[in-house]
Write a structure and sequence with these properties.
The protein has 252 residues and is α+β, with helices and mostly antiparallel strands. It folds into two domains: 12-77, no CATH class; 86-250, Heat Shock Protein 90 (2-Layer Sandwich), CATH 3.30.565.60. Helices cover 32% and strands 17% of the residues. The chain has a six-stranded mixed β-sheet. Strands 3-4 form a two-stranded antiparallel ribbon. The longest helix has 15 residues, at 110-124. 31% of the residues are buried.
Length: 252
């Protein structure tokens, strides 16, 4: 499972939360995770279950959830970490001041955030089409993996030590913006991202989401998004200015 413990203060997802407790962890979801490695977590003793969760960094030395453990397997992590979650807004038109068509909040664990935000985004996206005579001709659009990758990227790589804001997904008539609090690390540039440079601000989240099949650490995700946009003759913009990292996906 390639787990490790670390004392690196820069790895905020490995910080043990003094205000959290084990009863905030969904043990059924943890059991499903360990079942992938043929470990019968649910049948183990309480002491052995706690040992396994400490060994995988879901719990810290005091037996309390880590930031990453709560984000990945918490029942309602946003209650303890109000910066967690995804704010979604669908605007009528191309400007943030336009009327709202839909507005939602997606909380719960990171896998649930990704799945529910993807479903909400798809429900608001119009199928690209054109009218020829009396016929409606459907045009090619983005496949689901493009939106899924951008949601996973935002959830896994945001700076969770920034407590004043959540991830935002903003849908306009001509584009979709994915805004993740925190700028890129100093060694990473937007030019490098487009060609496959990977980084891990939150190594525990990356490890767990990779083990659950949501991502890999080979840096192939964002290049896939760029290639999909290029095939449609559209563009993707990466903006690392201000206090957030923003991906702007042009829509058909």
């Amino acid at each position: 499972m390639n787990h490790r413990a670390t004392e690196n203060a820069e790895d905020y997802d490995l910080v043990e939360l003094s205000q959290a407790s084990l009863n905030q962890i969904n043990l059924s979801a943890v059991a499903d995770y360990f079942a992938r490695y043929d470990l019968a977590f649910a049948r183990e003793s309480e002491a052995e279950r706690e040992r396994l969760m400490r060994a995988t960094d879901l719990l810290g030395d005091q037996g309390r959830p880590t930031v990453g453990g709560l984000l990945m397997f918490g029942i309602s992590p946003e209650r303890t970490l109000p910066q967690a979650g995804i704010q979604f807004a669908h605007f009528q038109g191309t400007q943030p001041g336009a009327d709202l068509i839909d507005k939602r909040f997606f909380g719960s664990s990171l896998p649930d955030q990704v799945q529910n935000a993807l479903a909400g985004l798809k429900a608001n996206l119009q199928s690209p089409s054109r009218i020829e005579g009396a016929r409606r001709i459907e045009r090619a659009g983005y496949p689901d993996p493009v939106f899924r990758e951008l949601l996973v990227n935002a959830c896994v790589h945001r700076n969770y030590s920034i407590t004043g804001s959540q991830i935002r997904v903003l849908l306009f008539a001509d584009r979709c913006e994915f805004v993740s609090p925190g700028r890129l690390p100093n060694t990473v540039t937007v030019e490098k991202l487009a060609v496959g440079t990977s980084f891990a601000r939150n190594p525990l989240l990356v490890r767990l989401m990779e083990n659950l099949g949501y991502m890999d650490r080979l840096g192939r995700g964002l290049p896939m998004v760029v290639q999909a946009a290029n095939r449609l003759g559209l563009g993707v913009d990466f903006d690392d200015s201000g206090d957030a990292f923003r991906v702007v996906l042009r829509l058909p």
